[in-house]
């Protein structure tokens, strides 16, 4: 029994119906590669219809002579009879819609007297000049098969032979492969699945997953650790989302928040416990970034004063306060300032926190100031060891001001606080000379001060008068600390110091020859570190780096935090709590 394979092309000039179970189909079969020409000759049309068309049931069908393999003829039932006897052959609804559109186009072409365009279909489905739909119907008919039957088929048809039994089937070939839709669908489902898997349940509702004996437990940092190793080596791995998130939005209590966010809750060495530090944070945005910074630098024996810009949204202030309620050694400043960039308010925020820190019961050794976009490069133990090397001296990097900087203290500046923006405005008024004939220096706003020096700030007239004189200068925090620390006899003073101290790693845009360029982007000439800056940051000898943006470059912050936590726990002198691991 031979297996014949016809490919039926929809005739756009006739109404099209479904093949199955009906003899009213208006379909035409044409050999592959044949031109779609208009039928103007009645005799030719009739002959062609006898050979290839599926005709209506009346007049009664007659047998069609099909040439044999050796020039003989072989009688076969009409094509309509053979096709209608197999109800499994179907035309899809999509094909029917294409047929309707095709008939409209063909009608317009016929009215203009155009000739039909040629359509061809190669072995690999080459594109035709106009879009056509083919229905491949595999029909099982009686008769002799083999190579002879295949050779006897009309030109352009392809014979299909099977070994064993075969079932009638239908496939549709179109200009838009169905697998493209499947690829888009699977991509969307994969992205949705990753987002859902990246949202862990609340800490209070989390239950430990069942563990098989002998298998290690996977942690949040397992994948991140491999990705960070690749980034340090200069490769570009795929990193999805944040892996070391805190549990601020999921914790039901402070205990759950501290545990779920992996805070270290005990001093890990006797050296650190005997050398407590005080920290000042000045914030105005990005709670998640502050949480990462606070967690990375937190130790239960230190003390922390947090200054939130008075202009910050109320919700942000409430969220920061909610975090600090879980830590008895952290508090909000008693008097907040509306901070203006390069204004006295930035310096006053640090001074207000220092006054509150002196009232703390913790007898801290040094106070260090931070902003919300800083991040540590060293562990707490490494910071303590670094500060001990200065033997009670203050660290205030700075030098005598260059000519371009002297304008900051030569004219009077005013703070302009607006709803949209705040800035410093220079006036034409000349500034009075510094009090007590002090020499004004220029340096960094980030410092490390001893406790005796902070007490000196609120008791010595030179410090009090210099603070008043600096209120209408530009960026006073960059000259106030270094000027006082250069006065001989001041507690912890370093009169001959320059830029030493290694407090901050900063990439300035005008010093790319020194640091190799910024792999993130610049804001006010300062680099916002990208992932490509990780090798440079990890090799730095500085205690902290500035600036970071968790939302823009999350792997930069997360890789640094992971490295710091691993180093800190590896040096621990006490048993490590399981919740301290990421």
TrEMBL record:
Q: Which domain of life is it from?
A: Eukaryota
> What are its GO cellular component terms?
Golgi membrane
Comp. bias intervals (Polar residues): 71-84
- Give the UniProt subcellular location, in the record's own words: Golgi apparatus membrane
Its annotated pathway reads: Protein modification; protein glycosylation
- What membrane topology was assigned to this protein in its record? Single-pass type II membrane protein
Primary location class: Golgi
Q: Where is the composition biased (Basic and acidic residues)?
A: 95-106
Q: Where is this region: Disordered?
A: 16-121
Q: Give TM segment ranges.
A: 179-198
Pfam families the UniProt entry points to:
Branch
Any one GO molecular function term = acetylglucosaminyltransferase activity
Ordered alphabetically, the record's keywords are: Glycoprotein, Glycosyltransferase, Membrane, Signal-anchor, Transferase, Transmembrane, Transmembrane helix
In its UniProt record, which GO terms are filed under biological process? transforming growth factor beta receptor signaling pathway
Q: Which InterPro entries does the record cross-reference, listed alphabetically? A: Glyco_trans_14
Instruction: State the family named in the UniProt similarity comment for this chain.
Output: Belongs to the glycosyltransferase 14 family.
Q: Which PANTHER family match?
A: GLYCOSYLTRANSFERASE 14 FAMILY MEMBER, N-ACETYLLACTOSAMINIDE BETA-1,6-N-ACETYLGLUCOSAMINYL-TRANSFERASE
Query: What's the protein here called?
Result: N-acetyllactosaminide beta-C6-N-acetylglucosaminyl-transferase
What phylogenetic lineage does the species belong to?
A: Eukaryota, Metazoa, Chordata, Craniata, Vertebrata
